[in-house]
Structures are given as structure tokens and as C-alpha cells.
Input
Amino acid sequence: MSREFEATQHIRNLFTGAEVKLLGSDGSVLPGIAGVAGVAELLEPGVELGVDRIIMQPGAEFALHTHPGAHILYVLRAHGFIHVDGVDYEMARGDSVYVPARFAHGVKTDPKAGDAFEILAFGVPHMPIDSQHRMEFVDQPPAPVD
Output
């Protein structure tokens, strides 16, 4: 637990950092989805705060899943959809959404979109971008995009 600012640890560029493939809870690579690790810090035992950039190619999706902690998604570029309680909500540049811990949701893109959908994902507790424990998929898939 760092109680002091350390530039080499606490400053990270989310546009120039190395992209990594995201993994499902079974360890498989999620097609069309990459991420860039941002900063993260242990605030107190068991409570880590962090942010990552997620890049979803047109047609990519996170099936219905949960996270061990709460998170906020902020749209950087293009548009996509968050699926909550049977409804797809369109998200566009500048939109943010709060997702409570253990709340099932899905994120997807339009396969006809011309640009990748990019979001910032802030989480507490934060899980590393390349961790297969970042999310747990649940049985019911999100409704299709019209």
C-alpha cells in the first residue's frame, strides 16, 4: 500500500501503453477485445482502485457477466450498448454508467459500426486487465441488438 505519490507507478498513458487481449473466466481469449492497463493502487487491504482502457472491435461483446466489485464505464470513442435487466442502453462518447458489484450486465458493439468502441473502466476492487478472474460469465445472454 503506497501512501505516497510515485510517478513511475502512478502515471500511465492509456493510449500509448501495450494492448493485451482480454480473457474470459475460463482463460479463453475474448475475440475482438483488447485492453491497456492503467494505474492501480491498493487503498487498504483488499481494496484496490484502478482504471483500464478497453477497445472493442465492431461486433465484439462481453456476454452477460459480473465483477467482484463495482465499476464505472466511461465512453471515449464511438458507441456501443450496455445490457442491464433485459434492456440494451446505447452509450456514446462522453456517457458514463455505474454498475454495482456482482450486478449482471453485458457490453456489446454494433457489427456494422465503422470504429472500435473504446471505454475507460474504473473498478473497485480493481482486477488486472489480463486476469481471467476480472469477470465471471453468467448463463443468460444479453438480448440481440436490433
In short: The mean pLDDT is 88. The CA atoms of residues 55 and 118 lie 5 Å apart.
